[in-house]
Task: structure prediction
Amino acid sequence: MGQATESAAGLSVSRGLVLVVEDDRAIADLVCMYLRREGFGTHVETDGRGALAAVRSMRPVAVILDVGLPVLDGIEVCRTMRAGGDWTPVLFVTARDDEVDRVLGLELGADDYVTKPFSPRELVARVRTVLRRSEGVPASEVLEVGGVRVDLLKRRVWTDADEVMLTSTEFDLLAHLMRRPGQVFSRQQLLSAVWGYSAAAGTRTVDVHIAQLRGKLGSSSPIRTVRGVGYAADSSGTSC
Ligand code: CA
Result:
């Protein structure tokens, strides 16, 4: 069941939506507060079944998963995700040493864990580390797809001839697509990754920003519309 979805609206750069699965409301609220302060969008679920539904519908960039949950416990949630081919980074929250042993022993592809009581600041730092790891270390900080070159560190973009001025959101959207050339992203996935919005937000936002990007990049634009699915960046680059 969906509860208290809050996005990072108002911040110029979002780090994406984090799903917090925790049946202790006070802990969930505290964790969300710290995540939002760091620019993440947040959504809370309080049982395992709701968590699985939210993972499927919202495509969070990471999941903070309490082990002791009603209905399905955190370990079952992670096992089900992995069995379905979902490798979204999972950070487990454990209450006891035997839970740590279970998390580590089952080879669930858990990316990290913290033990209660934990410092929310430390938890958010772990989330950032897990995300950096899952993005992989780029061989170069400069990406090039089709006629567009992006410097990820300096946040600058060039087409064949000229530097192009993008807004912060346009840059994040373009960089997200170009980091995985050829991979097709749904509008919902882009909303979650770039804006930190949950399923409640309108996907029209994505179309508007894609149109603006194409306008600025002109004939060099590597962004391809995949009808009925979403968008990809690749060197075939034909915009439609
Ligand atoms: Ca619990």
Notes: The helical segments are 25-37, 48-58, 74-83, 97-105, 120-135, 168-179, 187-195, 204-217.
